[in-house]
């Protein structure tokens, strides 16, 4: 099997110009389709979080039989100290203004964790309090030039597998260690050269990522965390729709609306002849390329390190045994 050569890092595209100007004191234009999608995403997110909180969780009596799980809208509004009509409109995705104070009150009522707490700020297009908002900058130029220095760093990390990826996990450049570990990714057509696509769309019998079912919820939550910063962008929308269609498993995870910030992940790979290769991934953001990061896979023990070396010497072991 021939390993595709590590690509040169392509030139940058034009940067994203940002949201459209807002209009009106009580409603906002929301940037056209992008604003509508943000409001729809916010509505779905709030509903999903409301449905997981029971009355007992917030000190309310169970009451009569409920037709839907979780709290009622009027209960959230009461606990957060906002009007029921206003909160209903927010859950319906209407273009109403939401202040930081109100979003904070709703977040506390719905018991959002740190990553979830930031999510409504981005979706409502309001500024969070200082120090409360973190995440990645726009990566519209994620296919741009990272420079010869980044290419040199990638190569110098070899034999540790390393790749340059954007917020959507499109793989932009890689070293030989990465090509040995994930030949299905580097050998894929450009439109499917994405680590999440390979992880979720590859049948179990041929999937080298052995712990995908245990790690899926975390991977998808991190993806949604980044997705909220790119609502309305056709490339993102198309990717999510295609992956949901290709993987019902991914679609079920996506429907949870869980969000989580980027963090190290444990990934276990296995190929015929090599045995299991346990790794820990680390993301290193590029200061000169907002939204682009270097992803490095570090073997967690000497056995995995030795097996990774063996796999580099026997690339044929990573070839699928059959076709679907």
Explain this structure to me?
The protein has 324 residues and is α+β, with helices and mostly antiparallel strands. The chain has two domains: 33-124, 434 Repressor (Amino-terminal Domain); 148-318, 2-Layer Sandwich (Beta-Lactamase), CATH 3.30.450.180. It has helices at 33-50, 73-80, 84-91, 100-109, 114-124, 148-157, 176-181, 183-186, 195-201, 212-227, 234-246, 248-254, 302-313; strands spanning 162-165, 171-174, 265-271, 275-285, 293-299. It has a five-stranded antiparallel sheet. A hairpin with a 5-residue loop joins strand 1 and strand 2. Mean pLDDT is 80; it is low at 10-30 and 130-146. Pfam families: HTH_31 (PF13560), MLTR_LBD (PF17765). This is Helix-turn-helix domain protein.
């Amino acid at each position: 099997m021939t390993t595709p050569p590590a690509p040169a890092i392509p030139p940058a595209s034009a940067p994203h110009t940002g949201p459209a100007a807002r209009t009106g004191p009580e409603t906002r234009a929301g940037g056209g389709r992008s604003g509508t999608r943000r409001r729809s995403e916010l509505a779905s997110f709030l509903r999903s979080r409301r449905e997981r909180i029971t009355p007992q969780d917030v000190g309310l009596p169970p009451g009569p039989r409920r037709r839907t799980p979780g709290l009622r809208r009027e209960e959230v509004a009461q606990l957060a100290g906002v009007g029921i009509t206003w909160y209903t409109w927010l859950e319906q995705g209407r273009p109403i203004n939401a202040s930081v104070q109100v979003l904070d009150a709703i977040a506390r009522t719905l018991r959002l964790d740190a990553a979830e707490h930031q999510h409504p700020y981005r979706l409502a297009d309001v500024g969070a309090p200082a120090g409360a908002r973190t995440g990645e900058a726009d990566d519209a130029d994620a296919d741009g030039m990272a420079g010869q220095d980044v290419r040199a760093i990638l190569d110098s990390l070899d034999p540790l597998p390393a790749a340059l990826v954007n917020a959507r996990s499109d793989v932009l450049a890689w070293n030989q260690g990465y090509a040995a570990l994930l030949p299905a990714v580097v050998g894929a057509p450009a439109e499917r050269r994405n680590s999440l696509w390979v992880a979720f769309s590859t049948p179990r019998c041929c999937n080298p990522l052995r712990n995908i079912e245990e790690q899926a919820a975390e991977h998808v939550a991190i993806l949604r965390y980044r997705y909220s910063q790119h609502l309305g962008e056709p490339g993102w929308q198309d990717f999510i729709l295609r992956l949901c269609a290709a993987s019902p498993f991914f679609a079920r995870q996506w429907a949870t609306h869980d969000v989580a910030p980027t963090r190290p992940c444990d990934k276990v790979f296995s190929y015929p002849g090599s045995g299991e290769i346990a790794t820990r991934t680390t993301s290193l953001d590029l200061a000169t390329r907002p939204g682009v990061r270097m992803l490095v896979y570090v073997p967690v023990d000497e056995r995995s390190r030795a097996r990774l070396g063996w796999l580099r010497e026997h690339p044929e072991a990573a070839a699928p045994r059959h076709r679907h």
